[in-house]
Amino acid sequence: MDVNEFENLAQKTLEDLFEALDEAIGDVADVDFDNGILTVELDDGRQYIINKHTPNQEIWLSSPLSGAAHYAYGEAQVWTSTRGNEALKAVLAAEFKQITSRNIDLN
């Protein structure tokens, strides 16, 4: 995919994640999206940072539970871990369920 296509897809993904997370957990976390960086700060101070990394055409996740991970957009049209087969949205939904005890739909 070319750079413009990646930029548009990554931006849309981050915007969609922002809207879904703000709606689902905005009462127990500060969810912010600014300059292409999605930040989720939990009430206990732990923080998620999700951003696009254009040179590698990846979305990067920094999680207080699972650490750092990189996700590439594959043929299945899903952001999938470069070190396994976990989908970004599935990882986030599972971790936020663990933290908040809420089922979160990120699709």
What would you call the shape? globular
Percent in helix: 25-40%
| Rg, Cα atoms, Å | 13 Å
Strand composition percent = 25-35%
Label the structural class. Answer: alpha+beta
Query: How can the largest sheet be summarized?
Result: 6 strands, antiparallel
CATH domain class: Alpha Beta
Kindly report the name of the CATH homologous superfamily.
Answer: Frataxin/CyaY
Low-pLDDT residue spans: none
Question: What separation lies between the terminal Cα atoms?
Answer: 22 Å
Textual characterization of the structure:
By secondary structure, the protein is α+β, with helices and mostly antiparallel strands. It has one domain (3-100): Frataxin/CyaY (Metal Transport, Frataxin, Chain A). The protein contains 2 helices and 6 strands; from the N terminus they run H-E-E-E-E-E-E-H. Strands 1-2-3-4-5-6 form a 6-stranded antiparallel sheet, with helices on one face. A hairpin with a 4-residue loop joins strand 3 (47-53) and strand 4 (58-63). The radius of gyration is 13 Å and the shape is globular. The model has no long low-confidence stretch (mean pLDDT 95).
